[in-house]
Write a structure and sequence with these properties.
By secondary structure, this protein is of the alpha+beta class. It contains eight helices and six strands, in the order ααβαααβββαβαβα. Helix content is 40%, strand content 16%.
Length: 225
């Protein structure tokens, strides 16, 4: 059965305003950096809720919205996550990762210690629903799960940065401990642990640069008449 159609809610702006808004957002996101030094300054839950609501606007395969977010501010739960994550990270840095991977990480200066998992006011665990469950408990196939969850995660990071918070994407491997700690069902797989909060006043980040757009975009333009 076809889904009923409703009028599109869209603000049509003039070309100059579109250009100015695109520049403003470009500059805002250019200031985004991954932060590892978080302040313990509290962040109201409403801010996190608004950012997640923005992420929920992401497109998804067949509009199945195959994601679930667990937002954690509880100190005891954050401590459990840090202990479990550092256990996996110690195995990773202690031999599980190959030399090539460790060499790639060396300039960033990361190691198995993850104090930000306790210090930051919020941890947001992003789960991908590998399949759905209908009213009878039977499996239903989900389409483009990784792509859909990836887009939603990007929107969440952008929303948090736009709000004025710093973020860090953390992906310990394996991440099965997050399913247990967050008490999520079998059809959900944790794909990212997103740390959010205010950076420390004296926070520092690696002196890295981003690839210029000239190296990352190929333009195939309309032929001139």
């Amino acid at each position: 059965m076809d889904t009923p159609k409703i009028p599109l809610s869209f603000v049509r702006r003039n070309a100059q305003e579109v250009l100015e808004r695109s520049r403003a957002f470009r500059d805002l996101m250019a200031s985004r950096r991954t932060v590892r030094d978080f302040a313990k300054t509290p962040v109201p839950q409403t801010i996190i809720e608004n950012a997640i609501a923005a992420a929920l606007s992401a497109p998804s395969g067949a509009n199945q919205q195959p994601w679930h977010f667990v937002a954690i501010s509880n100190d005891a739960v954050k401590s459990k996550i840090r202990i479990a994550a550092e256990k996996e990270e110690q195995a990773f840095y202690g031999g599980r990762a190959g030399d090539e991977w460790l060499d790639a990480l060396a300039p960033i200066g990361t190691d198995a210690n993850k104090p930000f998992l306790e210090f930051a006011p919020w941890l947001i665990i992003i789960f991908a629903q590998r399949y759905g469950l209908n009213e009878n408990g039977d499996r239903t196939k989900h389409y483009y799960v990784n792509e859909s969850v990836g887009i939603a995660s990007g929107l969440l990071i952008a929303a948090l940065h736009s709000a004025g918070l710093a973020t860090l994407t953390h992906t310990p491997s394996p991440m099965g401990f997050l399913t247990k700690i967050c008490e999520r069902p079998e059809n959900e797989k944790p794909v990212m642990l997103l740390v959010a909060g205010y950076p420390e006043m004296d926070a520092k980040v690696p002196a890295i640069s981003r690839k210029p757009i000239s190296e990352t975009v190929t333009w195939i333009e309309q032929d001139e008449c």
